[in-house]
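Lab notebook, entry 295. We have the chain sequence and a SMILES string for zinc ion, and the next step in the workflow is to get a structural model of the bound complex before anyone spends time on docking refinements. Request logged below.

Task: model protein plus zinc ion, output structure tokens.
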Amino acid sequence: MPRFGAHFSIAGGIEQAVERARAVRADCLQIFLKSPTRWAFMPLADESVERFRTAAREAGLRPLVGHATYLLNLASPDEALYEQSRRCILEEWDRSERLGLDCLVFHPGAHMGSGVAAGLTRIALALEWLHAERPGRRCRILLETSAGAGSSLCGRFEHLAYLIKTCNPGDAVAAGRPGDFWLGVAIDTCHLFAAGYDLRTRAAVDDTLGRLDEAVGLERLLVVHANDTRAELGSGLDRHAAIGHGKLGREAFRVLVNHPALAALPFILETPKEDDKGRPMDPVNLRALRRLLQP
Ligand SMILES: [Zn+2]
Ligand SMILES: [Zn+2]
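Result returned:
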């Protein structure tokens, strides 16, 4: 059975995210390691790390997922931004490892007009650098599928395939730690749909997952961001909506939460936290997902 959770705020201290997850009876959680719209890192005290680890363990939350800042762009042709992005994700990965997170999800980046091949090459070089800096990490790095708008990369499964084959191929894995890998994939249901991958029927989900399997192998898929969407198939638009209240609809999520290929994965909500009346929506969306499970 999948595990259901959400992205939770770290306002007031990183351990507060665990409290928020408990309050809505989540099975797993996702957090930012810092403000996602600023480069600066707030200090992270050892006591805070210990409180987070203990609270997360006691609450039975797993997996623990980190999400990197929105600012970084490892495909950027701007040298200064590229260097700042590399340093930033390294620090976020260090924090993730300290906190005992299982994986760190990031948006691979946008080539900003320099071309798909050049952008992917820069991401691959950055990832190889990252892994060389910190070999043997427990916390994995996950490439997130994008909505595919503008010059953003990884809206196509071929982009994911290129990065994994270049940076962490199966044979290198077999030579090191058999069956293990450091670079994986996170899918976002809203982004997939925006990028043209349909999920509205069992046949569509089978087709989309089959293509992902061919590209990277489904064993690399470790996280599902469960978001309905206000945008059309192939629109390129990233517009998260409450479960069952968007263009994907209830049926898409019924198929997804009951799909055998996704049965062991965490489904993490990144849907609006409140409705127009200010009512908290995480409990509503979690219930919506759980109610779709079939015995
Ligand atoms: Zn994301
Ligand atoms: Zn999104």
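Notes for the group: Strands lie at 3-7, 28-32, 64-67, 103-106, 140-144, 183-188, 221-226, 228-229, 240-241, 266-269. Worth checking against the assay data. The chain has a mean pLDDT of 95.
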